[in-house]
Amino acid sequence: MTPLPLRLHPDQDLRLALQEVLAHHDVTAAYVLQGIGSLKLAQLRFAGAPAATELRGDLEILSLAGSLSVDGAHLHMAIADAQGRVSGGHVAAGCIVRTTAELLLVLLPEYQFTREQDMVSTFAELSIRNSIGVTGATGK
User: Fold this and answer.
1) Rounded to whole angstroms, how far apart are CA atoms 59 and 41?
2) How far apart are CA 110 and CA 89, in angstroms?
3) Which regions form coiled coils (predicted)?
4) Is 72 among the domain residues?
5) Do 75 and 15 touch, CB atoms closer than 8 A?
């Protein structure tokens, strides 16, 4: 495991910047352990919703966590608006940094994360393999 503190700058796309980290460090697996900062535009998909909801304004990132793979990111975030109202959900593309985003990632060069269609959930779910080909536990 390799810890990687990261700071994003104004107008960066949060999700895109995190995907670029994998390519830059030549790894296929990472976790976002925590993130704080601010956004001027958030795209969150709420539980069970078919599409993301756009939120605009001065938004504070209260927490951000998730997994990163070459097939995409699975990120969840809680944000607060200028009145302190909190929203949370799945991070979609188009979350734009307002002033800063301070993140702690852990790179996992000994693992490969991919997203594979799950017959039960019907979604592309995380598939975990380590460098010797052992698949991660599924909880079943």
Assistant:
1) 8
2) 29
3) none
4) yes
5) yes
Number of domains in the chain: 1
* Side-chain-facing half-sphere of 92: CA atoms under 13 Å: 16
**CATH code at position 101:** 3.30.1330.80
Specify if 135 maps to a domain: no
Provide the whole-model pTM: 0.88
Of 39, 1, 19, the residue nearest 115 (C-alpha)? 19
What is d(CA 90, CA 53) in angstroms, rounded to the nearest whole number? Answer: 10
Domain membership flag for residue 59: yes
Render pLDDT for 116-134 as a digit per residue (tens, 0 to 9): 988 998 888 889 998 766 6
CA geometry: angle 12, 94, 68, nearest 5 deg: 80
> What is the DSSP track for 67-88?
EEETTEEEEEEEEE-TT--EEE
| 3-state DSSP percent of the chain in helix, strand and coil, to 5 | 10, 60, 30
